[in-house]
Amino acid sequence: MAFSEFHTKIDFSIKLAKDAFQKEIQFREVLIDNGYLCKRTVRFCERKNLHWFSNLKRDKALLPEKKEEKGKKSEKAWKKEDNKVS
Fold it and tell me: CA angle at residue 46 from 43 to 52, to 5 degrees?
């Protein structure tokens, strides 16, 4: 991380994990809160061979949009199915 007066919460979370490695704290799993879940934190975990877990909320920017076609499930049916998975 380059020196700067401004740091994001992602910067701090990765620094916290790096500090834990330097102090030889043993861990293999990381629980990532929704506010910290991004490509950068996932890549960091994968580079360090850490198992990461998170509860991703439904987000239109991450999930493909459902097209309204004949014979396809309605939005109500998708929501009902999503609730069963939880």
Answer: 100
Sign, CA torsion 23/26/12/47: positive
**Residue 12 sits in which domain range?**
7-63
Print burial letters for 5-39: b (CB count within 10 Å at least 16), e (below 16): eeeeeeeebbeebeeeeeeeeeeeebebeeebbee
DSSP three-state, residue 53 = strand
Residue 85 identity: V
- pLDDT per position as a tens digit, 34-54: 888 888 999 999 999 999 998
